[in-house]
Amino acid sequence: MIVGYIQNAPRFGNKEENFKQVENLTRGLKADLLVLPELFATGYTLISRAEAVQMAESNEGGTARFLMKLSDATGAVVVGGFIEQEGDQIYNSALMVYGNSVIGSYRKIHLFYHEQFWFSPGNKPLPVYEVKGMKIGMMICFDWMFPETMRTLVLRGAQIVAHPANLVLPYCQYSMVTRCLENRAFAITANRVGRETRGNDDFLFTGKSQITDVEGKILASGDIDTPQVALTEIDIHRADNKDINSINNWVSDRRPEFYF
């Protein structure tokens, strides 16, 4: 499987310009799975819930249509972040599409900082979808801080975790080495670059998008400040082998009756 991340530098509030940037980055590209950052089309630094409402969409809106167009052009399953509205609730969400179909969505369950003012906490189970021969889980940005997130996805069968992110803390990229090793799964952390200063917030995004394998090896890593795409080939079935040695097995050796 050819998998990759798209690391972009969105301009706040300008979806069409941000779509065009991604189109330019991916022109002529072919892959099996591509992951875009959290809120890749809107920017991140909201200053009110009203702004979130203004930019929110259903999972059949303009961002979904763009992701389907990108999937059609690249042949890839595509995962990207967007602001989702359902009824009067607004979520920080990720959407998975393939071809002309929406496969599913995930709503971020661990909201970071001011996100707790703008978004409702996620209310869907952590999802795993089997598409194009891959079992793909989704989590968003700050979810990485909680080991239970990726552990749950892998226990539900995920071979690879799509991880849209807008990282400002310096820890995640290092920690994904451990997350992948402790779960024997692949992960694609798609981060953004650039700076957003709005209201009382001044965020410098850390870039360094990363593809990490089942032994914690970093297969690809992005620059800290440059929009770019990286692809790598993986054997997805390496994630099916949970043997640590001839005796120990990551699944059968677990002792959940002793875990809080």
What structural keywords apply?
260 residues, alpha/beta, Nitrilase/N-carbamoyl-D-aminoacid amidohydrolase, six-stranded mixed sheet, 6 helices, globular
Describe how the helices and strands are arranged.
Elements: E1 2-7, H1 15-26, E2 33-35, H2 49-55, H3 62-74, E3 77-86, E4 89-98, E5 101-107, H4 115-118, E6 128-131, E7 134-138, H5 147-155, E8 160-164, H6 172-183, E9 186-190, E10 195-198, E11 201-204, E12 210-212, E13 218-221, E14 228-233
Helix pairs in contact: 1-3
What can you tell me about this protein's structure?
Helix content is 22%, strand content 29%. The protein has 260 residues and is an alpha/beta fold. The mean pLDDT is 97.
